[in-house]
Design a protein that fits this description.
By secondary structure, the chain is of the alpha/beta class. The chain is built from 15 helices and 13 strands. β1, α1 and β2 form a beta-alpha-beta unit. It is globular and about 60 Å long.
Length: 372
């Protein structure tokens, strides 16, 4: 069976890229088609044979794709998949818009319907001026996105939350819900094979348990990292923030003396930060939220806003706590009453192990067999 993979863009590292690598393990010979490929920023992608679109020739497109969303439809429609039996698109934007012939099956693993067009529109265009100026472009992209949404033969949703959005915005039913995997579990278990491995042995070491709260995220508005910063400012709680993004200057400007920006880390470094934190703070609304799984795997509870994918992966009172209004006051109130001692590392770890790469691959293989 000849298989091809399609992904929106290859220029960063995050949860979606972990899904892409898991698909590569299932289909190691499958080439990867994408809009742009930034080789310097993506050493993880060297395992693929990558076919970028014509946008690759634009000098600024590799790292500034957000300035050319109007070209993304054309980029994906220009690819030909006539020689393939199956195409799997992994997308939160335009990759689902590829055009295939009847003999080629197209499975779309949908991370979310295009956020800035639909569920996240008000967050991205948060002033009257932005909405007015962007209206012609948004109208065009919404029309195209609605047409493109009918092209996949089968939708797979990354969570029940995403399945609801696919139904709401695209009027399509997801054939299955398959949660994204985290390879930090596999990495940690590989390290555990050595008896003296510090990566594994420290996971439930209680002496690391009460040092700081943690945020692991890209710095974009809908993640609501500002809530975590302001709540920890008010309570003078230590907070470490891992990640980077376009909101960094703003977030640094509101951070108090107990807040530390760590930057981007390797997986091995990230594991150590998970192990030593008190809890992960997760104040945004996510389609799924891999960091929630990662924190639980290392025995740590999660304090999360009670909406979106987090409600599917956290057991309230057993592997974390929810707050029910997306405000500083609500998060502050929860932090005041939070007691890390009431949570057991084993409960958190057992919950997280449901989301391993092995579980993902089994579910996806079963789906492909059914579709083919």
């Amino acid at each position: 069976m000849r298989v091809a993979l399609v992904y929106d863009r290859v220029n960063k590292w995050g949860g979606a890229e972990r899904v892409l690598l898991a698909l590569h393990e299932l289909f190691p010979q499958a080439p990867l088609f994408t809009s742009v490929y930034d080789e310097k920023k993506t050493p993880w992608a060297k395992v693929f044979r990558i076919h970028p679109s014509f946008l690759q020739k634009l000098p600024f497109a590799r790292s500034n794709h957000e300035f050319i969303p109007f070209l993304m439809p054309m980029a994906f429609e220009h690819f030909s998949f006539d020689e393939y039996d199956l195409v799997i698109s992994l997308t939160s934007e335009a990759a689902k818009g590829i055009i295939t012939k009847t003999k080629t099956k197209h499975i779309c693993y949908c991370l979310t319907p295009t956020r800035y067009l639909w569920s996240g529109y008000d967050a991205y265009f948060n002033t009257p001026a932005k909405k007015i100026l962007s209206k012609p472009l948004i109208s065009y992209l919404r029309r195209w996105d609605t047409v493109a949404a009918n092209r996949p033969d089968v939708y797979v949703a990354a969570s029940a939350e995403v399945a609801k959005r696919i139904k709401k915005y695209y009027e399509r039913d997801a054939a299955a819900i398959i949660f994204p995997p985290t390879d930090l579990i596999s990495l940690n278990k590989t390290s555990a094979k050595g008896i003296a491995s510090p990566v594994y042995m420290a996971r439930n070491d209680s002496k690391h348990g009460k040092e700081y709260f943690l945020v692991v995220s890209r710095f974009v508005p809908y993640k609501r990292i500002d809530l975590a910063i302001q709540a920890c400012n008010e309570l003078r709680l230590p907070l470490k923030i891992i990640g980077s993004g376009r909101e960094e200057s703003y977030l640094r400007s509101i951070a108090g003396r107990t807040v530390e920006f760590v930057g981007n880390l390797t997986d091995a470094q990230l594991i150590q930060y998970y192990k030593k934190c008190t809890a992960l703070l997760f104040p945004g609304v996510e389609d799924f939220g891999l960091t929630v799984i990662e924190a639980q795997y290392f025995g740590k509870p999660v304090i999360a806003f009670a909406k979106g994918g987090a409600t599917e992966t956290i057991i309230d009172g057993k592997t974390g706590r929810f707050f029910f209004e997306q405000t500083v006051a609500a998060l502050t109130k929860t932090l005041k009453t939070f007691d890390a001692g009431q949570f057991h590392a084993r409960d958190c770890t057992q919950q997280a192990e449901k989301f391993s790469i092995e579980a993902f691959k089994r579910s996806f293989q079963a789906l492909v067999k059914k579709v083919i």
